[in-house]
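Re: folding output
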Amino acid sequence: MIEIKQTSEGNPLIMSSVSDFCGSMGYCELRIRHYLKGIKPPQTQKTIDGTKSHEKEEVYEKEHFTFEPVTEEGLKDLTKDIEFAREGLFTRFQRELSFGTEKLSILLYGRADKVMRSNGTLIIEDSKYPASKGKYSIQYQPFDDQKLQTLLYLNSNYSESGSLNESDCFEISCEKKAWIINIKDKATLESIKIFQGFQTSEAKDFLNEKVTRFALIALGKVEPEHHNNVRKCQSCRFTDCQYILH
């Protein structure tokens, strides 16, 4: 769901889950209109299977690995490698934006699959369990929604409680930031394709442009664009969407 509230200064505050933001700006901008109305797409077998695969990964890790508690000093010490348990951190991404004399805030919240720091590099790994593996055999880069998700996590603050209060969140010091998108077989959990890269200035520009456009669409200042892709519409879970292409 996407909500528009007000800050204590009386400016708009746009709140959204990371998944709804990425589904809108990485797949179809028209979804913003649905989310603003509180309309959520129905669960499909694909989404149910994906959730089960995530749960299996989490259980496996708990049974086979033990992680050292991360201290405040450890978060700041770049010489110390750290790793958090799978789905152990919630994320909070906030930006203040200005359009002329208007000011607004945007707050995107989520939960990262895997967060770690190695040799001074903050790494976010996100696992995907597609229903169809074939399309990835010719895919040389991740889809926009997948990359947006990892970039948001990389540029967030974190909490173990899920609190959205800034005072309850912490930063992880780093020299560089890197993302990994791990495409896995939903039955065996084995990797079938791995996309990875460092956060570049181009990647940050890509994220900032999407965040700004999302805010403008949500506030009704810019019209969402239709992707005009029939195959996207056929795969979309919003099956009763008035903008669907046949």
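--- second protein (sequence, then structure) ---
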Amino acid sequence: METMRAQLALSACAAPWLPIDELAPLAVAAGFHALDLTCAPVRFDPARAPGFWDNNAAVIDLTRLDVLIPHLARTLREWNLACSAIALPAGSERALPPGALPLARALRCFLIRIPAPRPEPPHLGEQWRALRAAWRELAAFGAGEGLRFLIETRDGTLVAAPSAALRLLEDLDPRAVGIAYDIASTAREGHEAPAVAVPLMGGYLAHVIVRDVWLRSGGAGWTGLASGYAPLGQGALRWPMLLTVLANAPYTGWLALENCTGLDLGPARIARDAAWIQGVLAELRTASAERPLSDPSPARRLPGA
């Protein structure tokens, strides 16, 4: 039976303690093959405590890309790391930030993640039409530049579920646009079963973000559920089952680990997260190898095999 091996990426924004040049060797030592890079118009202040959404040392400052691009490219080459995707802020679909295209070219990264805007209930129809128009233009631009723009399924936005992403991208070329599937976010809002969503996304599924969540009753929303991010493997999501669904697709892209918990653990958490996903994948490979030859279900490849 063919050896199964996933392509593992670390979302740099989930390791806010260190800049990319210090993060890269830790990622390699943990077994990651790539970094997802997040860009935003912010600058890290070493005098303040690092955080995921504020003062993140691993987030690339969009206002200094002209200075940072050569350094980033050199760092990734030195550590033999790919850039699996570039994450841009919401609103970038209307006008790409200056430097985003040179960054993609310099890092040989052709997947660009962009979340949808937050919904404004009095203006939902107008928002949706504007978003559709912007993504049509992105698709045309991407086709001409050899780029693929990915809409993220993210809770709290206009595209919280795969079906909304498919509605947005309907009739657009999947070689130029696709979906960055954040399964944990869809568990918080969207609630579409991956066993249905993954086949429906088909060729639009281009990137998978690996997070975990806790869920419980007592929330203030319409479902009555409360939720939040959990350490990988310690939340409500059944990742062995989810990875099997992806394998059966078959999905062969990146698994980008983006653990927004454990800030107090420091950089040691990077190796812990890598060990968790590698353990899950190893167990699935063992289970696949032990499947009886008489089993009528075909052997499937794990993501990135």
